[in-house]
Structures are given as C-alpha cells and as structure tokens.
Amino acid sequence: MTSANITAQRRPLPSGPALRLWQSGLHWKILSVAKFALIWEFAARSGFNFAFPTFTATMAALWSMIADGSRGATYLRTMKPLVIGLVISLTVGISAGVAMGLRQTVEWITLPVFIVMQAAPMAALIPLVTFVHGTGLTSKVLAVVMLSMPVIAMNRYKAVRNVPSSMVAMRASYAGVTH
Description:
Blueprint: H1 3-10, H2 17-24, H3 26-45, H4 55-68, H5 70-102, H6 104-119, H7 122-133, H8 137-161, H9 165-173
Helix pairs in contact: 5-6, 5-8, 6-8, 7-8
GO biological process, one term: transmembrane transport
Keywords: Cell membrane, Membrane, Transmembrane, Transmembrane helix, Transport
InterPro entries: MetI-like, MetI-like_sf
C-alpha cells in the first residue's frame, strides 16, 4: 500500500448535523415543500383567479387562527359530524358486511347496493345532499356515511368471506359455534 492509501484509510469520515441531514434525504423533502410553496405563490400572484390566495397570505391567516384559538374551535366543530358519521358507518357497515359474508341471501340482496355505492361517484352526489338537507349537521353526517360505509361494508364482507378453511377448522376444534 502507498502512504496516500494509508492516510485515506485513517482519515475519519466527515460527520455532523449537516451530513446526517443530507444522508437522511430530508433535504429533498424540504426542497419539495419549498418548490410547492413557490409554485403556489407564483400561481396566485399571476392573477388567473382572484379567489386564489397566495401562499404567504394563507400561512399568515393560519398563524392568526392558531394564535387567537379559533383553529381549535374549527377542528372541534368539524369533528362532531365526522365522529357521528363514522359511528353510523362502522355500526351499519360492519353489521352488513358480516351478514353478507355469513348468509348468501343477505349477500344476494345487499351486495349490489354496496357495489353501486362504492363504484358511483359519491363525491358528486354530496352537493345534491347539501341542496336537499342544507349545510347543517345532517348533510355533513350523510356525506361521511356515503363516503365511508360502502368501503367498510365491502372490506368486512371480503374479510368474512375469505377466512381460510384452516381457521374454520380450528374454530370447530375449539368448540366454536357453527352457523
């Protein structure tokens, strides 16, 4: 070996927070967010739509909402229809999915409804629900139910229907109830 190779082997690798940041790939994420913010700012300042706010104005409004506490109240007001809608969706969706998975007559009646609900563009029907029921709690809960219940019911149906036969045999060996 030459003396240059020995010196290169003994020299410690550079380290520090900047190198760790570079090696972690976090710089690419930061650059992506910065690029997104710049594109947003330039698009808003171009004047193509007067209702499109700039990135700096949006962040200033967000900071003022956080500072005066109105952001938390907004989240709490949004959580009420979300929680009510999810409770309804989970209750009805899981019950319907299990019933469809266990009984073919229930599957024959309800599966087409859930398939259509999952395939239909439900987001396009939400303005109709808002038109009929207004902007109150009912329309918000219905929107959550319309978007979440088909997915929950279909996932539960597939889970019950596709239980491996070895698990069914294990249930029987442990004196499980048959249906």
